[in-house]
């Protein structure tokens, strides 16, 4: 982060509401049985992760339609699960 934490929070909140990617696309690298179901994702299955589904989930961002840079205060970032805010993806295929 920079020496401008509020500006960082404003940019992050803007990217939460208007993510540059509509979804992340991945591919299952091995067969995976989804816990609590009979669903099996077979190796090679395409997987789409919708950004707005994550970024507008009230469990992680209360009042998700409201522009609120406080969503990215240090306290709120620490309380949130990782991989919920992914404006540029995550892992080896991240854009930035």
Mean pLDDT: 92
State which percent range the strand residues make up: 5-15%
Task: Assign a percent range to the helix content.
Answer: 25-40%
Strand arrangement across the biggest beta sheet: 1-4
Radius of gyration over alpha carbons? 15 Å
Shape by Cα distribution: elongated
Question: What number of domains?
Answer: 1
SSE string: HEEEEHH
Q: Total number of β-strand segments?
A: 4
Tally of helical segments = 3
**Contiguous runs where pLDDT drops below 50 for at least 5 residues:** none
Distance between the termini: 14 Å
Largest sheet: 2 strands, antiparallel
What's the arrangement of secondary structure elements?
Blueprint: H1 5-17, E1 23-27, E2 32-33, E3 40-41, E4 46-50, H2 51-55, H3 74-79
Antiparallel strand pairs: 1-4, 2-3
Binding site for heme: 95
Pfam family, one: p450
Family: Belongs to the cytochrome P450 family.
Q: Can you give a write-up of this model?
A:
- This protein has 96 residues and is of the alpha+beta class.
- It has one domain (5-80).
- The protein is built from 3 helices and 4 strands.
- It has helices at residues 5-17, 51-55, 74-79; strands at 23-27, 32-33, 40-41, 46-50.
- The strands form 2 sheets. A two-stranded antiparallel sheet has the order 1-4. A two-stranded antiparallel sheet has the order 2-3.
- The longest helix has 13 residues, at 5-17.
- The two termini are 14 Å apart.
- The mean pLDDT is 92.
